[in-house]
Amino acid sequence: MSSHLGFNQYGKAESRVVRIVRDTAVHEIHDLNVSTALRGDFADAHTRGDQAAVLPTDSQKNTAFAYAKIHGVASPEDYALALGRRLLEACPAARQAQVEVEQYAWDRLGDHSFVRRGGAVRTAVVTVDRDGAQVLSGVQELVLMNSTDSEFKGFLRDEFTTLPEADDRILATSLVARWQHTSTDVDWNASYDSALTTLLRTFADTYSRALQETLHAMGCALLDAQPSLAEVRFSAPNKHHFLVDFSGFRVDGLTNDGEVFVAADRPYGLIEAQVVRDGAPPEGDAWLAVPGFC
Amino acid sequence: MSSHLGFNQYGKAESRVVRIVRDTAVHEIHDLNVSTALRGDFADAHTRGDQAAVLPTDSQKNTAFAYAKIHGVASPEDYALALGRRLLEACPAARQAQVEVEQYAWDRLGDHSFVRRGGAVRTAVVTVDRDGAQVLSGVQELVLMNSTDSEFKGFLRDEFTTLPEADDRILATSLVARWQHTSTDVDWNASYDSALTTLLRTFADTYSRALQETLHAMGCALLDAQPSLAEVRFSAPNKHHFLVDFSGFRVDGLTNDGEVFVAADRPYGLIEAQVVRDGAPPEGDAWLAVPGFC
Amino acid sequence: MSSHLGFNQYGKAESRVVRIVRDTAVHEIHDLNVSTALRGDFADAHTRGDQAAVLPTDSQKNTAFAYAKIHGVASPEDYALALGRRLLEACPAARQAQVEVEQYAWDRLGDHSFVRRGGAVRTAVVTVDRDGAQVLSGVQELVLMNSTDSEFKGFLRDEFTTLPEADDRILATSLVARWQHTSTDVDWNASYDSALTTLLRTFADTYSRALQETLHAMGCALLDAQPSLAEVRFSAPNKHHFLVDFSGFRVDGLTNDGEVFVAADRPYGLIEAQVVRDGAPPEGDAWLAVPGFC
Amino acid sequence: MSSHLGFNQYGKAESRVVRIVRDTAVHEIHDLNVSTALRGDFADAHTRGDQAAVLPTDSQKNTAFAYAKIHGVASPEDYALALGRRLLEACPAARQAQVEVEQYAWDRLGDHSFVRRGGAVRTAVVTVDRDGAQVLSGVQELVLMNSTDSEFKGFLRDEFTTLPEADDRILATSLVARWQHTSTDVDWNASYDSALTTLLRTFADTYSRALQETLHAMGCALLDAQPSLAEVRFSAPNKHHFLVDFSGFRVDGLTNDGEVFVAADRPYGLIEAQVVRDGAPPEGDAWLAVPGFC
């Protein structure tokens, strides 16, 4: 029998990089979770145990920390581009570097005091080749709810279908969204802020006949609002909120008219979808090995 | 040999109660995680398998959901008091009911649209007896950081001490705090908002010679600000942020002057402390079996 | 207003200590999660920012690692006793040291190769004073199921009770159990192995009219089997397995006669109970601040 | 601007299906976590809010439970194939159904008593088209360690490289592995047992010059042992165990000769690789949207 090495990549995952900017008495904080991966001609490490071409994951980690100072963190995208380019430069065998960044937001309490905001986490995935780069911006753990203006009916029924049609239900999700830029010449922070505003406003304003329809509306609105985006991808668990059945309770006049729900953990519906601009350029390897989006 | 049943309690943990108030077109949301426990004379269930005195945990859960409607959720404390009293009434064998509530905050996006805020979670623990009740309010997952004005030096050294003294370090914690009221006649929401403000302001304003000192200052400030509180308890992991060592990097002029840190996961320092008002009334069973505070 | 410092303790939590014994070509592994805490006269650190009496948590961590070599890990209890005594010796202001150990089991694949076993985690909590020590042994994440011989009926009913009586249900729990020794002159490994055997056998052999009854039987059996134990404490979530309702499925002859269940996450019943030997000596501070058991 | 719907799928994730086989007094348990997804022509749901073609995720869940009885769970692969085929049959608009199964192992304590084994979780991913099916078997959470016979040296060095070469280190990983079958006519349980044996034995027997080399050897061994496999894919975090520095401890004769390590959480190296049989048939959509392997 004979076999060959297929796709492979290696890197350092989840370096928790915290950069404090203390040029003035009013400090700033950039709080990141950084993962890097290199792809290229590393077959000798796999098949012969020869590390000559391998830039250690420890060095990748060191670079991630150093670049928080050397380059700074104007935005996760900008930082990731610089880090990815550096890794390619440092490792001749690499054809491609992918850098994933999660950024945790903090609110200011004082000149050098902060409280972590929680909620949505901003993300960036940058894939750098020797002749260019692809950038995905995104958000995760964005937990959204509409307490009405959501229905689900007219669906296909089979022998195992017992779900009643719903005219008025809760729609809730913990959204993961990523969108691909067609350029690296972007004001990343302005683009992100605008994207988040668009997503939130569209979620709130869309009457939903299914989570799919809401996501599609959000994707279209985002592509409309930012012409430099090529596509949007969503991974959206349908966080079920089931109306609690009060019918067995022996309390006069007690009803549950869409007021009391149990928030369920598992199972959950899971809707995944892309909305792509007509005529968008080829996506390249932007989405390769991106968890939940490949 | 002979043995006897010691302390025991039983209940339903982590009912995820979501109450939507939809009396007008502008909905409100109360998003709770509710745990109940009963204590009393339930020995027959343990020793003889006789359930005659046992109100099922399923019924406790049902009551938690029903009371979100019947009583409503003006505040987690108020809801928990009503629920605890009801459980005692429904279960003659119970001597005491303890109700724990976590409340997740949401921000408004529209009349019936919300985005979960994340960050700190408001808590309440209510212990109801046949002749009264004790109330603990609190907060958890309150992640705080001072990027300077923190030192740690002058400590005891033994053969295994290698820690250098620190004149300027990051101080960060994910605080769990609870405080005991001396009354149940309280404007719970106003008290909570005020407490949070006091804790945040004191954390920001205190020069810290150790996390212990910061916590103590926060506790004193809270007791000062609210005369009706008897005591405050803290459980505070010292979320270590270690300065990254740049000395081995061969980059001219590259230094790390308190700017780049690695946020460590484990191990972590863990500081637990109470600040008690002089002359406070007996605490009763308020803290009995409260995770992390007993 | 005036206030005072109440109960307090500090230490280093969750040091992940891995000791490899490589005295021969056949290696052994001891894989531990170690938490230490000191209690005593540390008021100056809280109220005056004076660390002179404080042995840093960093030094406690260093000691935990060093003692895995200096003393070794014959058992988690033996290691914890040695570590606790050392910490008391090193820190004159301390009145008491508490050491918690979790031990992860590995199975052997070869002379120096191992696969982690998963499943139940062995635990020890040791509380050392200047004149003695208390030892709790235990187990956690011990997930048990009886697929029949479990009922729940004859319980109290109120207006919110809708639960039907069950003649034949699944009983499942993820058990946390701890038991207190009356001596430190114990063959800890033999005692633990015996305790686990007793708990498993009693769980399997007991017809259950409620989880309470099963736990009580397990506690009594353990005290019977090991006369040197003073008491046993359990924290046992009732991991509900609900029979799936097939009645709405339009498939001829399809029934669900106790064969298909949904394993629910939340909420869950939570039963906590102690079984205490008559005439057991005072428990001292053995259980003080032990998560879930205080 | 105009856009179009790109790739999309929907389904029900993480149904916790527990099947008890109670045909005799000696019960058996099959404990599964089941996720299903449908792909096909569901554009109307996204763009027009029309659910006529949509089999609800609730019905998919119901089918997952019902099929644990109707078809049974001879193996996760066999169950998943039956479930996937049924879903395609029930939903004309679907082109493809993907079913993921995790199976948790239990050890027997008695005729109807079990203790959950913990450790490695068996997995299957089945992708069913109208004219065939692809099957991936696998394992996850397989935590492996070699306490010697592992080195890492001769690697590329750049300005940020500070890692010393290691002649003797711990090699540990929490392996996720999946392998693709070329047929559905397989004794799935025998194949899985054999695969696990091959992976464990090869891990133990391979002197490692990097985790890459060990994984490659494991993949080659698996393809050698089972001619009906087309390829193997690994995702392997390098669970770093750092030798604890005892040099600062002031204890005579205390050294750390590869005996005491700290098990680190984050960051971790992450190695991902495929080993593919030469001449393997096209992989089809077997790996499409499979978390961590696409």
TrEMBL record, chains A, B, C, D:
<protein>
    <recommendedName>
        <fullName>Uricase</fullName>
        <ecNumber>1.7.3.3</ecNumber>
    </recommendedName>
</protein>
<comment type="pathway">
    <text>Purine metabolism; urate degradation; (S)-allantoin from urate: step 1/3.</text>
</comment>
<dbReference type="Pfam" id="PF01014">
    <property type="entry name" value="Uricase"/>
</dbReference>
<dbReference type="InterPro" id="IPR002042">
    <property type="entry name" value="Uricase"/>
</dbReference>
<dbReference type="GO" id="GO:0004846">
    <property type="term" value="F:urate oxidase activity"/>
</dbReference>
<keyword id="KW-0560">Oxidoreductase</keyword>
<comment type="similarity">
    <text>Belongs to the uricase family.</text>
</comment>
<comment type="function">
    <text>Catalyzes the oxidation of uric acid to 5-hydroxyisourate, which is further processed to form (S)-allantoin.</text>
</comment>
<keyword id="KW-0659">Purine metabolism</keyword>
